[in-house]
Amino acid sequence: MTTESAVLVLEDGTRYTGRAYGARGRTLGEAVFATGMSGYQETLSDPSYAGQIVVMTAPHIGNTGMNDEDLESRRLWVAGYVVRDPSRVVSNFRAQRSLDDDLVANGIVGISGIDTRALTRRIRDAGAMRAGIFSGEEAALDADEQLEIVRSAADMRGLNLSAEVSTLEGYVVPAVGEKIGNLAVLDLGVKSSTLRYLAERGFEVHVLPQSATIDDVRAIDPVAAFYSNGPGDPGASDAHVELLQGILRDELPFFGICFGNQLFGRALGFGTYKLPFGHRGINQPVLDKATGRVEITSQNHGFAVEAPIDDVIESPAGFGRVEVSHFSLNDQVVEGLRALDIPAFSVQYHPEAASGPHDSNYLFDRFRDLVLERRRQRDEQPTTPAENPEENA
């Protein structure tokens, strides 16, 4: 284990000195904490964490190593990584390399050996804030200079990161089993497990870049549309909101998760706001209002939809009645939306939860059933008979 020094600097001037971990150098981002006890590989490769320095509250990280099978995307996305005790050995039959190997290969600057519980309490009390990790030659910079560098970094508010994480070219994931139809998936930072679960429900999944237009969506003749998770401020994604409003006007069934939930809220006419420190981890309790069931969910979001959790209200954008379907039991934050007059719903959490829990996996079935029901309704609609020219003579 290295003895090279590193320092984590928060924008409020708080400093934590530890050991260099992963790549050496300087990295800047928003410091957030993730409360999962497992799934560090899925966290690191989740595009929703782009731009964030992730603090792991679990003290021991890296013992099962890394493998290619569990990666959620093409690379590691976190801006920086903070752990207390990185494992000195890898002990798992599926491991192909160490966590440190992948951090170095992906250029992820990290820090270890600090009191992550104290840091978590600081973020919880003061809120997520800009931060920087400095190691190697950067660790020797003057403390005031390091703080100035951190304070000059971009703020997550108003930041659009979709182009950074989205695919540049569209691609198709074939349906598994009997095909229901083509599904338009807007890649705002989609994870591979999400695409796999959709394909297993019979959708031929057409993954579109975040720059897609309504004409691009219509060109694949979809039976439904899906918005993925992703990083950034939903208030900075006007084009995606306009696209979604076009999809809803076309009466396509819609399902959105995480960032997609926030954009669905905006498309319906609601506002969004930044949470003090967000929800991140795989142990977030959510209440399903329809069933009264409590689900333990996987989450990663720093923004939320602003809507009343108790009432059925009219969509300010003219899409009929809407209700909050799920909310957080920790702080009553909106965790799901359901439109009552159009075939569309969303949740704020990640129902694919590759590293667990799987309480919410049924939502993929609910989406499939919604699409099939919509198809049945259309098939049963009576056709308008053609006018008889002789009768109108």
UniProtKB/TrEMBL annotation:
Residues of the active site: C258 (nucleophile), H350, E352
UniProt-listed Enzyme Commission number(s): 6.3.5.5
Originating species: Diaminobutyricimonas aerilata
Chain sites annotated for binding L-glutamine: S48, G230, G232, F259, Q262, N300, G302, F303
GO MF: ATP binding; carbamoyl-phosphate synthase (glutamine-hydrolyzing) activity; glutaminase activity
Stretches for region CPSase: 1-182
Pathway linked to the protein: Amino-acid biosynthesis; L-arginine biosynthesis; carbamoyl phosphate from bicarbonate: step 1/1; Pyrimidine metabolism; UMP biosynthesis via de novo pathway; (S)-dihydroorotate from bicarbonate: step 1/3
Entry protein name: Carbamoyl phosphate synthase small chain
UniProt xrefs under InterPro entries: Anth_synth/Amidotransfase, CarbamoylP_synth_ssu, CarbamoylP_synth_ssu_N, CarbP_synth_ssu_N_sf, Class_I_gatase-like, CPSase_GATase1, GATASE
Gene Ontology BP terms: 'de novo' pyrimidine nucleobase biosynthetic process; 'de novo' UMP biosynthetic process; glutamine metabolic process; L-arginine biosynthetic process
Reactions catalysed according to its record: hydrogencarbonate + L-glutamine + 2 ATP + H2O = carbamoyl phosphate + L-glutamate + 2 ADP + phosphate + 2 H(+); L-glutamine + H2O = L-glutamate + NH4(+)
Keyword Cell membrane attached: no
Keywords of the record: Amino-acid biosynthesis, Arginine biosynthesis, ATP-binding, Glutamine amidotransferase, Ligase, Nucleotide-binding, Pyrimidine biosynthesis
Entries under PROSITE patterns matching the protein: GATASE_TYPE_1
Domain Carbamoyl-phosphate synthase small subunit N-terminal, chain residue ranges per copy: 4-134
Pfam family for this entry, one: GATase
Function: Small subunit of the glutamine-dependent carbamoyl phosphate synthetase (CPSase). CPSase catalyzes the formation of carbamoyl phosphate from the ammonia moiety of glutamine, carbonate, and phosphate donated by ATP, constituting the first step of 2 biosynthetic pathways, one leading to arginine and/or urea and the other to pyrimidine nucleotides. The small subunit (glutamine amidotransferase) binds and cleaves glutamine to supply the large subunit with the substrate ammonia.
Residues passing through the membrane, by range: none
Homology family: Belongs to the CarA family.
Subunit relationships: Composed of two chains; the small (or glutamine) chain promotes the hydrolysis of glutamine to ammonia, which is used by the large (or ammonia) chain to synthesize carbamoyl phosphate. Tetramer of heterodimers (alpha,beta)4.
